[in-house]
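Tokens in:
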């Protein structure tokens, strides 16, 4: 029932106590200074980045699945098991209720311009609304409940993820553009890269798949041993974060290489969000905690390239692969980075062993 703040060495900095139910969603405000956490206790809480609780948003009659900030940071939208979406101001005052779905509302997101809201529901539909609460469009085409809906960066395309094992791309008028079929179980999260060219889908089949805008499957990210509940791109688009029922968070590059596994939660991890500056990752879990992880993502890319230094130096390596690490590290630093990574890996393993011993 707590939120915890940690530094990179695993030291606990602060404990934020407030929620009385499972953590279902976590999201940063656009300026990165406020964090919204949604919980099964029917509330959403707003926190300072330094850990002080600011407001509790109380009004839903059942658990809150998702909370999302508008692009200007002044409005929070919340999606609930009670089949409604509510809009709130930053002072915690309820502005209006969007009622129209006939089942659980699983996700809510604002368009990049902030004037349109997309909601995804178990009733097999996605709805678009304006900020005044008027229903604009209903997308009906999935054969099962819709878990997630996400706008492309230009706001012209909406991607949806469904328990019918597919994701779909739509235009703003509700016309279906593409179906992304390849997962072998329910698809529960979908996200666009910041440049809008890649779509990531997360599934109950324990994988994440990357697709282009034409619906072609590019990569499969395999490594989790449980349901992948959420997928998110870093602000620069170079890192992909995934969270799973296996209690871990994984970081990947766009080529599908696993960079790091973050272990700290004691139950399903449901949601992951990058701060706008890309320096902090927030994760929400069924263990009733939200953890903030402090990472230098550029350093992670450098480490990844350090791992691959021998491969990059091989004359047989394709030029397109060599280009992945071009300008990431000067040649003189590649060896040093590899040495530092080896030491860091040993220390990480040592710390993981200590954590297991403490938990046992």
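Residues out:
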């Amino acid at each position: 029932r707590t939120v915890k703040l940690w530094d990179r060495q695993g030291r606990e900095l602060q404990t934020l106590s407030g929620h009385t139910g499972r953590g279902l969603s976590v999201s940063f405000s656009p300026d990165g200074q406020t964090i919204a956490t949604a919980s099964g206790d029917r509330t959403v809480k707003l926190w300072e980045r330094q850990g002080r609780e600011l407001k509790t948003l109380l009004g839903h009659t059942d658990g809150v699945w998702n909370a999302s900030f508008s692009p200007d940071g002044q409005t929070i939208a919340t999606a609930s098991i009670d089949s409604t979406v509510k809009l709130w101001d930053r002072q915690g005052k309820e502005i209006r209720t969007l009622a129209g779905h006939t089942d659980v509302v699983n996700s809510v997101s604002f368009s990049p311009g902030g004037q349109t809201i997309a909601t995804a529901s178990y009733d097999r539909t996605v709805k678009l609304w304006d900020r005044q609460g008027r229903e604009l469009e209903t997308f009906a085409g999935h054969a099962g409940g819709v878990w997630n809906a996400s706008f492309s960066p230009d706001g012209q395309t909406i991607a949806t993820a469904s328990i019918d094992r597919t994701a779909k791309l739509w235009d703003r008028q509700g016309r279906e553009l593409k179906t992304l079929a390849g997962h072998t179980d329910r698809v529960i999260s979908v996200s666009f890269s910041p440049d809008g060219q890649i779509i990531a889908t997360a599934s109950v089949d324990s994988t994440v798949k990357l697709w282009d805008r034409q619906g072609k499957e590019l990569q499969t990210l395999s490594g989790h041993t449980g349901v992948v509940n959420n997928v998110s791109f870093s602000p620069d688009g170079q890192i992909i974060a995934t969270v799973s029922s296996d209690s871990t968070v994984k970081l990947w590059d766009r080529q599908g290489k696993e960079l790091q596994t973050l272990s700290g939660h004691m139950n399903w991890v449901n949601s992951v969000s990058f701060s706008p500056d890309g320096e902090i990752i927030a994760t929400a879990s069924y263990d009733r905690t939200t953890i903030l992880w402090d990472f230098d993502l550029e350093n992670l890319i450098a480490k990844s390239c350090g791992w691959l230094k021998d491969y990059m130096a091989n004359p047989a390596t394709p030029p397109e692969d060599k280009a992945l690490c071009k300008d990431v590290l000067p040649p003189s630093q590649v060896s040093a980075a590899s040495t530092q990574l080896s030491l860091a890996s040993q220390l990480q393993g040592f710390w993981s062993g200590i954590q297991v011993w403490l938990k046992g």
